[in-house]
Specification:
- The structure is a homodimer.
- Chain A is an alpha+beta fold.
- Chain A has two domains: 3-142, PurM-like, N-terminal domain (60s Ribosomal Protein L30, Chain: A); 159-302, PurM-like C-terminal domain (Phosphoribosyl-aminoimidazole Synthetase, Chain A, domain 2, Alpha-Beta Complex), CATH 3.90.650.
- Chain A has helices at residues 3-15, 63-79, 100-117, 168-177, 184-191, 199-206, 218-229, 244-253, 257-263; strands at residues 25-27, 34-38, 41-51, 84-95, 120-129, 134-142, 159-163, 210-213, 232-235, 270-274, 285-291, 295-298, 301-302.
- In chain A, a hairpin with a 2-residue loop joins strand 2 and strand 3.
- Chains A and B meet through helix 1, strand 2, strand 3, strand 4 and helix 3 of A and helix 1, strand 2, strand 3, strand 4 and helix 3 of B.
Chain lengths: 312, 312
């Protein structure tokens, strides 16, 4: 049996029981990030690997774009726990013929993305590979006294809300895949996301009961909250915006733009559940509600989106 | 200019000024590990990337060996700061035809190596690659009130000492490279190191002034202490043991086994400098002394070993 035959969920099922437990664990593997108790404080830790050809293409993305994306998707995981990113460690495996200018621009992108968050790069490893660029980023963050928000705490009666945009990256990818380079806003959104970092800690302070970021798709990631919390989630799609550019691109490509909103990943919006009586500040926008049961319902219909399998 | 043309030191010189700084940094990039201030405590963080074909070969190492090695070299970096490893995050990029059994045995190896240290695996990422296995491990550790020991604090008059063995991995690699599978002890030492983890925190408590682990070679890593500290280091090689197996293997291969001791990497012994009057407990063994000047001297002769360049 190979990893592509068993697929990602099956693989995780076989791997998780083998993992040694850490005495410092507050939140263990399986959520957006782990949380560890360290010296009276709590540190958030998460890691992502980006493989050239699968997670980025050099003909579609500049090295600066790749650096921003690599930093952003890890810093988004920290925000999705209610943390603030403080430090990155970056492992790079590079073919020997990689241009020095590529590496420099990659780190420039990392620095740009870290700036508003206040995170730094504190370590890394540079090694040679034979085939393509592989990037491994670990982000560390601090909770500053907030309780970590996992995917597992949503309760019937909670409100479901979103901060940030969805569908943009998927629309950009669709455009690029057909050989176009415009609309620029969509293509740029695929190159690196625009993450509402501050909304994560704000949600934790407001008492969010569950949270994650939209990396695999809105419905797929809502489902991860529904499954982890043992609840059902009902949303309406009409509060999500199909922008004029999205509508035009969808018309040109002959697709339904609402699928981008519901199934498109990699925009790293934050989605969270809150006790029903909390007034949500911007940019949080109410999407629906948590009810008893299971599954995700969109406009009253059950959704069977299964999300993205990294091995299939 | 490509990365293999500029080489590792040149690449680092170009990358370091581009790295954003973290407000939490106690020890920044360039040492064995970073140290961050988190909630009143200090967390050690380090990352290493292993590329199939460069850092391990499936025909020489079992997946369990690879798991042990990947965990060990990161936990050794934590020990070399005087820390104790608490948590690993592991990113794996795997070809789709990787056997599930390989992945399971890899994590079994990680678990075995973590056991005595008490570290756990708290997170990770599993993605598909097109070419070969790439492994990115980040280790986090705690200082438990000890001061981190960098490479930069050695002072003239200090004693230079070593804990753990050197030359074993290089001897094993030499044997494997010639197509042999024995002596088993040397070959096994190449497959995964035997790291004296506890000696790191002990050294920090004793007041070690500088410390690192032997990943590139004894002389090369002593040189990294000499350069960072602005001192010269003098050692004698006769306190290092050429084992009977090493002597026999060297004779069979027609090489000088002392080169394995001085230049062989990947055994992850710890080397440290201590104020001259401290009585060193086992397994610490005195190798030489720190003097004014620059460079590393072995048995009175200047050594020009340049260490291992990951890009050349």
């Amino acid at each position: 049996m190979t990893v592509s035959e068993i697929g990602e969920p099956g693989l995780l099922e076989r791997v998780f029981p083998r993992l040694p437990e850490s005495r410092a664990t507050v939140v263990g593997p399986g959520d957006d990030a782990a949380v560890l108790a360290v010296g009276g404080g709590r540190v958030v830790a998460t890691t992502d690997v980006l493989v050239e050809g699968r997670h980025f293409r050099q003909d579609w993305s500049s090295p600066r774009d790749v650096g921003r994306k690599a930093a952003a998707q890890n810093l988004a995981d920290v925000a999705a726990m209610g943390g603030v990113g403080t430090a990155l460690l970056i492992g790079l495996a590079l073919p020997g013929d990689t241009e020095l200018a590529w590496v420099e621009a990659f780190y420039d992108g990392v620095r740009e993305e870290c700036g508003p968050v206040g995170a730094g790069v504190v370590g890394g490893d540079l090694v040679r590979s034979e085939h393509g660029i592989t990037i491994a980023v670990t982000a560390l963050g601090s909770m500053d006294g907030r309780e970590p928000v996992t995917r597992g705490g949503a309760k019937p009666g909670d409100v479901v809300a979103i901060a940030g945009r969805v569908g943009w990256s998927a629309a950009g990818l669709a455009v690029l895949s057909r050989g176009f380079r415009t609309p620029r806003a969509l293509v740029d959104a695929h190159r690196f996301p625009s993450v509402p970092y501050a909304a994560g800690p704000v949600a934790a302070e407001l008492g969010a009961t569950a949270m994650t970021d939209v990396s695999d798709g809105l419905v797929a990631d809502l489902r991860s909250i529904a499954v982890a919390s043992g609840v059902s989630i009902e949303i309406t799609s009409d509060v999500l915006e199909v922008t004029p550019q999205m509508r035009d691109a969808a018309a040109a490509l002959g697709v339904d733009p609402v699928r981008w909103l519901l199934d498109g990943g990699e925009d790293h919006a934050l989605i969270a559940t809150f006790p029903g009586k909390i007034e949500l500040p911007e940019p949080w926008l109410t999407l629906g509600r948590v009810v008893r049961g299971r599954g995700v319902y969109v406009n009253g219909q059950p959704s069977d989106d299964q999300g993205f399998d990294h091995f299939r």
